[in-house]
Amino acid sequence: MSFFGKLKERLFKSSSRLSDGLDEIVADQSSTAAVAEPTPAAPPAQAAPQSAPAERPVTPAAPAARPEPVAVAEPKPEPEEPAAKPGFFARLAGAVIPEAEQRRLVDDEMLETLEDLLIRADMGVETAARVTANIAEGRFGRRISARELREALAGEVARILEPVAKPLPIYPRRPQVVLVVGVNGSGKTTTIGKLAAQFRAAGKKVVIAAGDTFRAAAVEQLQVWGKRADVPVLTAAQGSDPASLAFDALTQAQRDGADLLLIDTAGRLQNRQDLMEELAKIVRVLRKVDPDAPHNTLLVLDATTGQNALAQVEVFRRIADVTGLVMTKLDGTARGGVLVALADKFGLPIHAIGVGEQIDDLAPFDPEDFARALVGASD
Predict the structure, then answer these.
(1) InterPro entries of this UniProt entry (predicted)?
(2) Is 341 annotated among the ligand-binding residues?
(3) At what angle do helices 12-36 and 367-375 cross, to 10 degrees?
């Protein structure tokens, strides 16, 4: 299966919410339009008898011989054949042909419904309004199918995401210090393990520092990943100062000639000032060893938190000078649209997205693939 297919499959909850919603938006007016369309067709039928008397004086000579073949033979085959063909092909194609034929007028009512759908998918009010306005441009007053609407939405989402889709930069500086931060349960420890394994596979010498000194499970989890990737994991006694561990880890990484030092940190809520101060202390201590450290600060976000992710970025960016984002758990939520809101509001690089527990389920962020998977568009 291609990565796009896998991504679309894993983004099922987000994708189905948007895709089904777009189908409903078009179908709602299509069904009412189907009832309304025969009414305008009736006046032309009444106009025909009025024009007929004007034509009769032109052919008065042979009224008796021609009416019978013309009236009996021609009208019957014409209605029967067109009625039979659509029914036959519609049965062959199932729902595909009727769905493709459904179109809806792009008007204020339709755009308001679309904007509401995007807000419910966690794109945020401002982003949803901007995307809707861009879709309306050049299409207002025209009729549009669900497929065309889906393609237009995918294009707008990709346009927002394109500038922020950047891989984690690798610098010649050794060791390159990558500090990983985030709230409780966002997936920091798993993300570090996957990054370590991927960089190790790429030939980099990697060291992990288990900076979550308060949670034994986090240390054990990193040690499992360390064995799997053949990467050393530096630990400290439970409850010890994480800033002290960060200092020691950077000193040892320098001594060992490591390419990358990945530092895990304890999960902390953005509204806990004491914990955020502890994070700021880690940064200050690292800079005593290397004034430029950390060279990258990755904020790991849990997609299931929805709009709360925006508040997390605000606080962590202020305290820890966040340089890039990783979004996890996109396979377990219908709120994948929040990634679009984050890109639109902050413009921070999005390095990778997580759609599962396996090592290859943390993948580089591809804006076009993500946009098409999010709205349920085909490959």
Answers:
(1) AAA+_ATPase, P-loop_NTPase, Signal_recog_particl_SRP54_hlx, SR_rcpt_FtsY, SRP/SRP_N, SRP54_GTPase_dom, SRP54_N_sf
(2) no
(3) 50
In CATH, what number is assigned to the domain containing residue 191? 3.40.50.300
**134 assigned ligand-binding residue:** no
Considering the domain boundaries, does residue 1 fall inside one? no
Report if residue 231 sits inside a domain: yes
**Is 333 known as a binding-site position?**
no
Ligand-binding site membership of 347 (annotated): no
pTM for this model (two decimals)? 0.78
Tokens of 227: 């064995």
Contact indicator for 250, 289 with CB cutoff of 8 Å: yes
268 has binding-site annotation: yes
Going from the C-alpha of 173 to that of each of 231, 257, 258, the distances in angstroms are 19, 11, 10
What does DSSP say about strands 350-354 and 206-209: parallel, antiparallel, or unpaired?
unpaired
Owning domain of residue 269: 176-365
Residue 233 within any structural domain of the chain:
yes
Domain count, the chain: 1
Q: Is residue 225 part of a domain?
A: yes
Beta strands 324-328 and 103-105 are unpaired
Find out whether 319 and 274 touch, Cβ atoms under 8 Å: no
Over its length of 379 residues, how does the chain's per-residue pLDDT go in tens digits?
A: 455 556 667 666 667 778 888 999 998 765 545 444 444 444 444 444 444 444 444 444 444 444 444 444 444 444 444 444 444 334 334 444 444 458 999 999 999 999 999 999 999 999 999 999 999 999 999 999 999 999 999 999 999 999 999 999 999 889 999 999 999 889 999 999 999 999 999 999 999 999 998 888 889 999 999 998 899 999 999 989 999 999 999 999 999 999 999 999 988 776 677 777 888 899 999 999 999 999 999 999 999 898 999 999 998 998 888 999 999 988 777 778 999 999 999 999 999 998 887 877 888 899 999 999 899 887 6
Q: Is 226 annotated as a binding residue?
A: no
Tell whether residue 28 is among the known ligand binding residues: no
183 is in an annotated binding site: yes
14 is in an annotated binding site: no
